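From the shared-data thread, chain only:
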Amino acid sequence: MVELGGVVFVLEGGYNSDVLSRGGSRLLIDIMSNKDVEINEEVAQTDPRIMARVNSVIRDVINIQRNYWRLA
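Structure, as tokens:
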């Protein structure tokens, strides 16, 4: 009998290089390994123009997907 176990994390798109450069991936590994970590609660600010574009794209995707799925 073969037993497989463990956890896999995949970083997928939308990377914030500022957060990653401050150790976001390392922090995740430390937290999942039950290590004592110090979490910096500083929030990375996103440019309002970028957020407006992101929200626009999300609305567009929802409107297209409504043709195929029941969405709120």
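The two ends are 45 Å apart (CA to CA).
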